[in-house]
């Protein structure tokens, strides 16, 4: 969309105030980013979920800063008029501020992202504030935080009791105070996500967090069922089953190669008779 105006963090805050929802989608490469932008997506997240979705890992933990730079650069080439956020991968923002800023700089300068995302609550607020002070927008992420999956005991719903709900509220407010421009709420009970959304002046973006967040984010491959085998997720709605279309198309190609129906007359290029004469010495291709 050549005439599309990319969002910025000021517009996003106004959209929340006006009650206008934000649409966000993950993308990991040039063609998916281009399609997302053409479809009107407002924010693209180059998530470290690429480890699970396109690199074949069991978790996001093996994803490196080099992986994130490579994929972010591909996405920003495809979606040049969309606000793009890149994930800071596992253990790249829990050391010194200098170390964190080196990773941020790579995602911004080499990857060409407009913002970075960090998972965590109170424990990362000082880092968030330092990155924001350096002039980089930060998207927070609380609730289910996949980088901490080994600490939280798996992929569990967050905010199911009073203590956990209070923790999430405190974390969200602390991230806002640290300067985050928005907060992702992942696998949070709807009631708690609603309360957090109403308490913050910055947008909340939900994934499995119910109907009352200020925006929603889904994984590209979930939305389009682009996986094999596909694992059903309660919080995901499938809008197209491209995985099945791809599988059927490749299967048909294999069959047509086997039965010699591809390529047919419409897929070949013809040479001039003089070319044939030169190849067969003027005797014709049958040697006569």
TrEMBL record:
<feature type="binding site">
    <location>
        <position position="87"/>
    </location>
    <ligand>
        <name>Mg(2+)</name>
    </ligand>
</feature>
<dbReference type="GO" id="GO:0032259">
    <property type="term" value="P:methylation"/>
</dbReference>
<dbReference type="InterPro" id="IPR003700">
    <property type="entry name" value="Pantoate_hydroxy_MeTrfase"/>
</dbReference>
<comment type="similarity">
    <text>Belongs to the PanB family.</text>
</comment>
<comment type="subunit">
    <text>Homodecamer; pentamer of dimers.</text>
</comment>
<comment type="function">
    <text>Catalyzes the reversible reaction in which hydroxymethyl group from 5,10-methylenetetrahydrofolate is transferred onto alpha-ketoisovalerate to form ketopantoate.</text>
</comment>
<dbReference type="GO" id="GO:0005737">
    <property type="term" value="C:cytoplasm"/>
</dbReference>
<keyword id="KW-0479">Metal-binding</keyword>
<keyword id="KW-0963">Cytoplasm</keyword>
<keyword id="KW-0460">Magnesium</keyword>
<comment type="pathway">
    <text>Cofactor biosynthesis; (R)-pantothenate biosynthesis; (R)-pantoate from 3-methyl-2-oxobutanoate: step 1/2.</text>
</comment>
<dbReference type="InterPro" id="IPR015813">
    <property type="entry name" value="Pyrv/PenolPyrv_kinase-like_dom"/>
</dbReference>
<feature type="binding site">
    <location>
        <position position="87"/>
    </location>
    <ligand>
        <name>3-methyl-2-oxobutanoate</name>
    </ligand>
</feature>
<feature type="binding site">
    <location>
        <begin position="48"/>
        <end position="49"/>
    </location>
    <ligand>
        <name>3-methyl-2-oxobutanoate</name>
    </ligand>
</feature>
<dbReference type="GO" id="GO:0003864">
    <property type="term" value="F:3-methyl-2-oxobutanoate hydroxymethyltransferase activity"/>
</dbReference>
<feature type="binding site">
    <location>
        <position position="48"/>
    </location>
    <ligand>
        <name>Mg(2+)</name>
    </ligand>
</feature>
<dbReference type="GO" id="GO:0000287">
    <property type="term" value="F:magnesium ion binding"/>
</dbReference>
<dbReference type="Pfam" id="PF02548">
    <property type="entry name" value="Pantoate_transf"/>
</dbReference>
<feature type="active site" description="Proton acceptor">
    <location>
        <position position="186"/>
    </location>
</feature>
<dbReference type="GO" id="GO:0015940">
    <property type="term" value="P:pantothenate biosynthetic process"/>
</dbReference>
<dbReference type="InterPro" id="IPR040442">
    <property type="entry name" value="Pyrv_kinase-like_dom_sf"/>
</dbReference>
<dbReference type="GO" id="GO:0008168">
    <property type="term" value="F:methyltransferase activity"/>
</dbReference>
<keyword id="KW-0566">Pantothenate biosynthesis</keyword>
<keyword id="KW-0808">Transferase</keyword>
<feature type="binding site">
    <location>
        <position position="119"/>
    </location>
    <ligand>
        <name>Mg(2+)</name>
    </ligand>
</feature>
<feature type="binding site">
    <location>
        <position position="117"/>
    </location>
    <ligand>
        <name>3-methyl-2-oxobutanoate</name>
    </ligand>
</feature>
<protein>
    <recommendedName>
        <fullName>3-methyl-2-oxobutanoate hydroxymethyltransferase</fullName>
        <ecNumber>2.1.2.11</ecNumber>
    </recommendedName>
</protein>
């Amino acid at each position: 969309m050549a005439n599309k105006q990319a969002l910025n963090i000021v517009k996003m805050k106004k959209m929340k105030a006006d009650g206008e929802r934000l649409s966000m989608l993950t993308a990991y490469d040039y063609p998916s980013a281009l399609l997302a932008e053409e479809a009107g997506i407002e924010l693209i997240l180059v998530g470290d979920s690429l480890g699970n979705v396109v690199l074949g890992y069991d978790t996001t933990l093996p994803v490196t800063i080099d992986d994130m730079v490579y994929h972010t650069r591909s996405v920003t080439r495809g979606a040049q008029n969309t606000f793009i956020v890149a994930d800071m991968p596992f253990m790249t923002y829990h050391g010194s501020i200098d170390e964190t800023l080196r990773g941020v700089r790579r995602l911004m300068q080499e990857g060409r992202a407009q913002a970075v995302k960090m998972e965590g609550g109170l424990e990362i607020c000082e880092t968030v504030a330092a990155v924001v002070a350096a002039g980089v927008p930060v998207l927070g992420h609380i609730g289910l935080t996949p980088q901490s999956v080994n600490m939280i005991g798996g992929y569990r719903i967050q905010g199911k009791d009073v203590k956990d709900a209070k923790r999430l509220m405190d974390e969200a407010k602390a991230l806002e105070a640290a300067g985050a421009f928005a907060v992702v709420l992942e696998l949070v009970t709807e009631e708690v996500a609603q309360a957090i959304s109403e308490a913050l002046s910055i947008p909340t973006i939900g994934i499995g967090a119910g109907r009352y967040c200020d925006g929603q984010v889904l994984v590209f491959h979930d939305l389009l069922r682009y996986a094999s085998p596909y694992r059903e997720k309660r919080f995901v709605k499938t809008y197209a089953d491209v995985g099945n279309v791809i599988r059927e198309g490749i299967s048909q190609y294999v069959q047509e190669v086997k039965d010699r129906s591809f390529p047919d007359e419409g897929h070949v290029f013809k040479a001039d008779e003089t070319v044939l004469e030169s190849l067969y010495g003027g005797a014709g291709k049958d040697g006569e």
